[in-house]
Amino acid sequence: MSNYTPPFTITNEILSYVSSISEKIGRISVVSDMDTRPRLRRDNRIRSVHSSLKIEANSLSLGQVRDVLDGKTVLGDPKDIQEVKNAYAAYDLISEIDPYSIKDLKRVHAVMTKYLLDESGRFRQGEEGVFSGDKCIFMAPPARLVPQLMKDLFSWMKRARDSVHPLILSSIFHYEFVFIHPFADGNGRMARFWHTAILSAWKPIFEYIPLESQIERFQSEYYDAIAECHRDGESTLFISFMLSQIDKILDEISGQFKIENEHIPDSVKLLLDIMVPGDSYTSTALMETLGLRSREGFRRNYLRPAIELGLISMTIPDKPNSRDQRYIRI
């Protein structure tokens, strides 16, 4: 058995994030709540799919992704539409796979790239690099080394699963996977999916936490962290980055469950119920959906309380009366 150990350092910042995340997961205590909230589970999964694909230049909007999955006709690139169907089917497997199994990794990749890749479900046979325009900024290890590198990585995970916290282990895997670049295509999608799979094996709630949407919001920083780790030759910075994003997304998830609080006005609950997290809405569109005519009544009874409770944010917070203002459910 390989004795390979990925290079990384456990810093005080990393330990602080692990503590914070663990506390927030404990406070949320939402496993049973998720069982009774199928719409929230589906909305968050759709956000995961949309964001992970958007990072890879998929052109479909969140609404179009939802329409594809609802069986509606969507005018878009057939490849982008197939990517959506594949990714959603892959995420449906997350609770039944073993995140410490290379066989399951290949199985999920086959689903993720179905009809899109000749080498679907198999490690790459050719060389791969990451380009910025015409400039190669990173060259992945030679294809002939990939099987052994992946075997070494999974062997380390199995050895370390009882001694390295899952929050740290999953981040290390994510970076090492991106570095090895084991497949001809779909590496970014698979890295983010497998990160979620490892965390879900630790705490099932992670199956429905759209970590991918948080990464997509900080996409430049995500790639910068990966690039810097390539230069450093270890994954410490990337671990800190990923833990900071998990810490932030848990605050958002907590906000989603505030609507269960008895102190939330019924009018606000109605407003939140018609808003999909991540989508933006004009006040006119929200009023029309709710069947309201009084703009002042809408602002007083629905919009302002939701904003004050931190459940809805403005796209232009420094100009609350802007005609371009949109509202987003947090």
Overall description:
The model has no long low-confidence stretch (mean pLDDT 91). Strand 1 and strand 2 form a beta hairpin. It contains 15 helices and five strands. By secondary structure, the protein is mainly alpha-helical. The longest helix has 21 residues, at 236-256. The protein has two domains: 12-258, Fido-like domain (Fic-like fold), CATH 1.10.3290.10; 264-329, Orthogonal Bundle (Arc Repressor Mutant, subunit A), CATH 1.10.10. Helix 7 runs antiparallel to helix 8 (166-180) and helix 13 crosses helix 15 (295-308). Strands 3-5-4 form a three-stranded antiparallel β-sheet. A two-stranded antiparallel ribbon has the order 1-2.
Helices and strands in order, then pairings?
Blueprint: H1 12-28, H2 31-35, H3 38-55, H4 62-69, H5 78-91, H6 102-112, E1 129-132, E2 135-139, H7 146-160, H8 166-180, H9 187-202, H10 211-217, H11 219-232, H12 236-256, H13 266-273, E3 280-281, H14 283-290, H15 295-308, E4 312-314, E5 327-329
Helix pairs in contact: 1-12, 3-5, 3-10, 5-6, 7-8, 8-9, 8-12, 11-12, 13-15
Kindly summarize this structure in a few lines.
This protein is mainly alpha-helical. Helices cover 58% and strands 5% of the residues.
